[in-house]
Amino acid sequence: MEAFLSVLASVLVLVGALLGLIGAIGVLRLPDSYTRMHSASKAGALGAALILAGVAAASEGGFALAALFAAAVLLATAPLAAHAIARAAHRAGITPQTGAVGDALAEVARGVRAGEDGAKAPQQS
User: Fold this and answer.
1) I need a surface site. Which of 5, 43, 63, 124 has the fewest CB within 10 A?
2) Counting Cβ atoms within 10 Å, is residue 15 exposed (0-12), middle (13-18) or buried (19+)?
């Protein structure tokens, strides 16, 4: 059983480190701040959580429980923090590179909501 936990811990740490590396490459290569933030928050948080799960598998008792608790807190808070930062950046006027998709948040801020047929819906008070 100890050999299995040792191998499991090694695999989890390596996969977590690989995801962290992919997140870091995304921060360097992606075009705008929103996609960079997405890469950093999603891949970084999952990578760190996997590393913490590997630490929990390698350790015993209370330290394993603390590592799992830290992973759960990280997975719960990292996406929320990224969303709050992205929303603040959008309100500060940093525009995303949207392409054909458009900027739905800007449309909501202007009060323009398109229906399924493309017609503009009336603004709600």
Assistant:
1) 124
2) middle
